[in-house]
Amino acid sequence: xxxxxxxxxxxxxxxLKGKSTRIKKKFIFLFIFxxxxxxxxxxxxxxxxxxxxxxxxxxxxxxxxQAVSVKKKKLRTDFxxxxxxxxxxxxxxxxxxxVPDYFLPNLKQYGDVEVDERIFSSLxxxxxxxxxxxxxxxxxxxxxxxxxxxxxxxRDFSExxxxxxxxxxxxxxxxxxISLPGKNEHNTGLAIDFNAAxxxxxxxxxxxxxIENSANYGYIxxxxxxxxxxxxxxxxxxHFRYVGEEAAKIIKIQKLCLEEYISSLMK
Length: 267
Ligand SMILES: [Zn+2]
Fold this sequence. Notes:
By secondary structure, the chain is of the alpha+beta class. It has 10 helices and 6 strands. Residues 42-73 have low confidence and may be disordered. The structure holds zinc ion. The site of zinc ion (ZN) has 6 residues, from strand 4.
């Protein structure tokens, strides 16, 4: 029989059971809500990242192009005004700053190559001093005319095309390795390539000696490995540039590249 007492017990049981079920439901709902929100936030983040990444890939066709586009952003500094009034040894030439027409090198023969006569004595002195230390340095490239530069660029460009690259990639790669006529430091007569060497030069004692001593003669490693995005050129361990003793020592001590050093002077 369901008398009053029993009825109350029964009612409490049913009511409390219902209540705990409702609490459980609330918890389950809250739990699902938290999980759902977290998953949505995570998904949104990943989709965004993926979109950004895809955009980069779409904008540029290849890794090479991506590097070039990063480089272009970093290389925006216009040194035209600087070049107009600076000392001859601090002229700045790179992929976006051409050798000014009024900058005329006074060429002098150094072995098989020509260099600006104003760097002739420092270069001779440096090479003689290095030889005393058993270091064998010779100049494989000095001044290059714009015509010669064009030949080198065209040759590199067509080599790249032969590697099945599309025109844009091939062009950008040549830009990174060779530079356009007028936009290469060799057009100034102030740049030197040693020993006809490539990247392997960085593991030679000749390179070590140059890194240690070239600043005393006014020369800097022009395209350091950790400055590729600022110079716009790949690491070239055998390419040195005359900037004068004072600038070379500051650049060496402060671990700068020429763009950074000159930017600091322009401030
Ligand atoms: Zn060079």
